[in-house]
Write a structure and sequence with these properties.
The protein has 120 residues and is α+β, with helices and mostly antiparallel strands. It is 30% helix and 35% strand. The protein has a domain at 1-34. The chain contains one helix and six strands. Strands 1-2-3 form a three-stranded antiparallel beta sheet, with no helix packed on it. Strands 4-5-6 form a three-stranded antiparallel beta sheet, with no helix packed on it. β5 (56-60) and β6 (66-70) form a beta hairpin. The N and C termini lie far apart (85 Å).
């Protein structure tokens, strides 16, 4: 079934848009001259808090206006890690892996030493 978009602009102060599939309303939206629409617009914002459990972050986008932004709504190009930070993270991962390997090697050496002591 095809979607139809119906637009009502008969009133100069308000425009209404409805998306209909068959005889069922799929989407409804309106824009008023008196009320500025905030949802769906693009803003420059500052991330104030990241909430991993919600897979989202809270943002401040001017004045005293705050918003909620889900991670899946952010294109990956917009949250690239700066080169210096990325290199620091990679170095830290290498150090952690090296420390883990060294700890594992030390554990194996202790085990070998114990086995040698047990043999008569």
């Amino acid at each position: 079934m095809a979607n139809k978009m119906l637009i009502d602009a008969t009133h100069p102060e308000e425009t209404r848009v409805v998306v209909v599939r068959g005889n069922r309303v799929e989407e409804f939206d309106f824009e008023s001259a008196a009320r500025k629409q905030l949802r769906g617009n693009i803003y420059l914002a500052k991330v104030t808090r990241v909430e991993p459990s919600l897979q989202a972050c809270f943002v401040e986008y001017g004045g005293n206006r705050h918003g909620f932004l889900a991670f899946n709504e952010i294109h990956p190009d917009y949250y690239q890690i700066p080169v210096a930070d990325r290199l620091a993270l990679l170095e830290e991962e290498k150090r952690a892996a090296r420390a883990e390997r060294e700890a594992e090697d030390a554990k194996l050496k202790r085990e070998r030493k114990r086995r040698r002591r047990r043999k008569p």
